[in-house]
Amino acid sequence: MADSIDYGNLMHSAMRSLIKTVLSDVKEHGLPGEHHFFISFDTTHPDVQIADWLRERYPSEMTVVVQHWFDALEVREDGFSITLNFGDAPEPLNIPFDALRTFVDPSVEFGLRFETSDDDEDEPALHSVDEDDEHDPELTALVEKPAEAAKPPKKEADVVSLDAFRK
Description:
Layout: H1 7-29, E1 37-42, H2 52-57, E2 61-66, E3 70-75, E4 79-86, E5 89-96, E6 100-105, E7 110-113, E8 125-127, H3 137-142
Antiparallel strand pairs: 1-2, 1-6, 3-4, 4-5, 6-7, 7-8
């Protein structure tokens, strides 16, 4: 038995399992409602398979959007493959879960970020992405917040005296 519990690796495994479950559901049923994903990954990972021109354009990290048009989504234990449209040119991508850096669904303000050894923290981070997220402004920028005007105005609490109801 180990001397300590490796929470970092356990959390990464749980986060990858969540993404695998979500992508498997999308493969079977499609994207529900307004859901869409911003997925960033390490293009230097040895098992990432992308077109040479994409690797040249994104030598270290790439973010893809899974929204309106995607094809051939396949989900495996170790990763997923998908065909996405780049300027009217369909391109197949193979992305291992180990290469993921972020997974964001801005429609529900949900995001996961995988910390790497060269990040500030050693532990993986699980973030609910919102306007106040100071950890990763790029993730926050991806989240579309409803306009302030669409929010109902905050109302002060009404104070009711119980004396009015006493006999």
